Amino acid sequence: MNETIRSLFERKSIRVFDGSEITAEEKALILHSATEAPTAGNQQMYSILDITSQELKDRLAVSCDNQPFIATAPLVLIFCADMQKWFDAFTAAGCAPRKPGAGDLMLAEADAVIAAQNAVVAAESMGIGSCYIGDILERCEEHRKMLTLPDYAVPVCMLVFGRPTKAQLERKKPARHSLDDIVMENGYKLKDEAALREMFREKAADKGFDAWMQAFCARKYNSDFSREMSRSAEKYLEKFKG
Question: How far apart are CA 215 and CA 222, in angstroms?
Answer without folding.
Answer: 10
